[in-house]
Amino acid sequence: MIESSQQPLVAAAADTRHGLTHLHDDAGGRPGAPILAQTTTANDRRTKRTGIARYGYLAYSGLAVAMGMVHFGFHLGEFNNISKILPCLSIPHDTPTSPFLGLALPPCIPMSTLQFSFLNAVLALSGAAGATVAGALCKSHGRRRVLHFAALPLAVGDLLMVFAASYAQLLIGRILAGFATGAYTAVSPVFLAEIAPAKLRGIVGNLASAGIAMGLAVAGLAGYYWTEPPSWRWLLAVALLLNAAQVGMVLGVPESPAHLRQVGEVERARAVETRLGWEHEGEVEAAAAVEVVDEPQTKVDAKLHEAADEMLVAASPGPSSSSSLTLTPLPTTAVAPPSHAPTLLEFLTRREYRRALVILGIAHASQQLSGINVFFAYSFSILTLIFTPSEAALFYLIMAWANIPVNFLPGLLVDRAGRRPLILFSMLTMALAAALFAVAAHFILPEFAMAMFLTAVVVFAVGLSNVPYILTAELVLPSAVPAAAQAALAVNALASFTVLFGTPPMLDALKEGTFVVFAVYLAVAAAALAVLLPETRGRPAEEVVAELHRRSGVAEMEGERLVRAAA
């Protein structure tokens, strides 16, 4: 900095002769050194380095937070490759104990098909409990601390499973792991949306689904190599390494700016946003107001973020807790006037919400009853209907890793094609793929079966993976979203438990016919949505709700009531 008491005044006149920018002093207008050009170049370099550092920190923070979703994906697929070894189906019950880290542990854990089904499915039930607790803790402790809190039950659960000597020990470990992963799935997507600048929210938000895919891929890789006694315990121990990695990474992650503002730490929130690459000239205001953007991913994730916010609200106790958990608001395209916030009971029983309830129920149930988790949690059992065990393990490994980039498709398509056509296309194509897979399995057509298997996974990502969550925020007025999200969360969890619990007995009884059941359900559900579901893309919530009321006759009933009241 030039002190005025020591230097002559410098005028800001620029001489651009010879392609140089000079400064002239007031003493005689003599051209000085090209200070301005040098300063501008230095500032540009400094700005570039700062931008790289900020986006690097955003990438680090996003990956650390998304590790919570990696845990969920890993635990969803951890038993897949050992589904024959773990319950002692492929080795004798009286096989001698196998030493593991100096301990004499059984080579497998005897259990029935129903017990193994429940062991898998309990992840959904305990996960719902974990989401409930996480929703409450987020309000008082913030997102970052909840991620650390969840690491403790996860570590205990993983240790119990690694050293399990009985079914009870394995089950308790699975329940604890499910509780922790449920907390992660409730917090991580919202946390990702809150730390991302508006222009990058779509990309950062997609880390949540990519994290699940990564977890499944890691489980597939570990399961490809560690499947025999006692090495399957090393497969389960991978979860401990993932947990330790996230605990260490989250230490370097800031608290959510939304939570910091919520507790009154505005200056700290601004400092965090700056460090993460936010542009404060309108960035914060854009997060709190409606903004028209060009990038489809940003608009898509705005809806996903809103639905995720309300899912987190719904996870907390109480009939209507939206007012006590104010995250970075991302409203729909029109701001609704203040209206009554229905309780969950009112949402379930009042006629004005009935059509939205039915649509959300079908959409969220179909997300799970499509059988998508079956393709990952039980793929080894399914693929061995056609392939040898080694071929089945290799195909699953390839599919799991290929599934990671597939999870970026929704952000590219939802705002271009619309919600209604995408979810119907996804459901009907999955139904066709499931039916054709059953045919391929019956006639032992490996190549065709592989193609149908991959088709089902890809088309799920196109529509069913995210449209149900978007619809949660678009089929009702903003005041009713918390109750709608509670109902949707309950349906989703119940459907997930049902399909994970029911699939192994169905595979035993029906073999490839199991996929005919999935196909029939999806076809019927798609037909119902084709009749009930309006397009919601780009429409204000009031307009969508008015259309639902007209279709269900609520508008006419309300008009008659007003006429009677006036008379």
From TrEMBL:
Superkingdom of this protein's organism: Eukaryota
Compartments (UniProt record): Membrane
Domain Major facilitator superfamily (MFS) profile per the UniProt entry, residue ranges: 61-537
A GO CC annotation given for this chain: membrane
Entry-linked Gene3D superfamilies: MFS general substrate transporter like domains
Keywords: Membrane, Transmembrane, Transmembrane helix, Transport
Coiled-coil stretches noted in the UniProt entry, renumbered to this chain: none
Transmembrane segments: 55-74, 114-134, 146-165, 171-192, 204-226, 232-253, 357-387, 393-414, 421-445, 451-471, 483-503, 515-533
UniProt cross-references to SUPFAM superfamilies, sorted A to Z: MFS general substrate transporter
InterPro entries membership: GLUT, MFS_dom, MFS_sugar_transport-like, MFS_trans_sf, Sugar/inositol_transpt, Sugar_transporter_CS
Membrane topology: Multi-pass membrane protein
Molecular function terms from GO: hexose transmembrane transporter activity
Family named by the database record: Belongs to the major facilitator superfamily. Sugar transporter (TC 2.A.1.1) family.
Record-linked PANTHER family: FACILITATED GLUCOSE TRANSPORTER PROTEIN 1, SOLUTE CARRIER FAMILY 2
Protein name (database record): Major facilitator superfamily (MFS) profile domain-containing protein
Organism: Allomyces macrogynus (strain ATCC 38327)
